[in-house]
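Input chain follows. Return structure tokens only.
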Amino acid sequence: MAEENPTEVNKPAAPAAAPAAAPAPAPTAYEGYGGDRFRERRGRGRRDRDNDGHDGKSDELVEKVVYINRSAKVVKGGRRFSFSALVVVGDRKGRVGIGLGKGVEVSEAIKKGGEFAKGQLLNVSLNNSTIPHQVLASFGGAQVLLRPASPGTGLICGKTVRSVVESVGIKDLLSKSLGSKNAANVAKATLKALLQLRRREEIFKARGIEQRLKKAA
């Protein structure tokens, strides 16, 4: 008769294995940043920006790049390039500004030109979708002639003049560029011509005729 092994008889049974835990759900795109609290904070930030007058005002401005120039400086190690950008900014409601920005990169020059133009916005007198009267202005060697047009005519002008008058809000115009074709001079001559515009009411008020007409009536 075989002898029993006391070690095998008194050995306790192995405990049952614990069930495997269910895998955790994958976090959503927002849970890693705070979940609902992040969404609420982000939504509140958007509302604050929408209610801010400066943000709404900047969104209405139209920015157009008229001309980009590249210049090179010869140094001992080679040539160093820099860029200048002429930018026109307007709200299409009678205000426009021109800025010239310079920088090592094109984007930097455009940004500087846009910021300078936004700080130099000027009011222009308009007559509905056109200008009140004919005007001629010159800057440097460039001359620009602007004439009013009937509704539906459109903008009959060159690229540089079109960029300026579109930013102001003019939709019907006849123009002629005389003399130099330099983009900077043409744009500045166009702005100078727009600043010379006066409506009939403004002229009467400056001469004191408006009060006389009211007394006569």
